Amino acid sequence: MSGEVRDRLADRLAQLTPEQRAMVRRVMQERIADEMRERLADKIADGLSQLSPEQRDALRTALRQRIAAQVRDGLSDRLANQLSGGQGDGQER
Question: Which of 22, 71, 83, 90 measures 20 to 30 Å from 48, CA to CA?
């Protein structure tokens, strides 16, 4: 994301009420989870061609679940905090 776009987005987020920011975080969380769950899991699993189709399917499912859990556990909050110039929650993952 370019600095100019990030700055404009940060300015807009700063004007939102805490409730509106929470809604933005929830929407981001859902969309990021969906995108990452589908794309990343498929790329990794498909790249492991030495596995059987059943093993690839099992891996794909496990990756989707893990990615969704990571997103639910704060990725969208950390991104929103970065965009709004916040310091984050202080936790490293």
Answer: 71
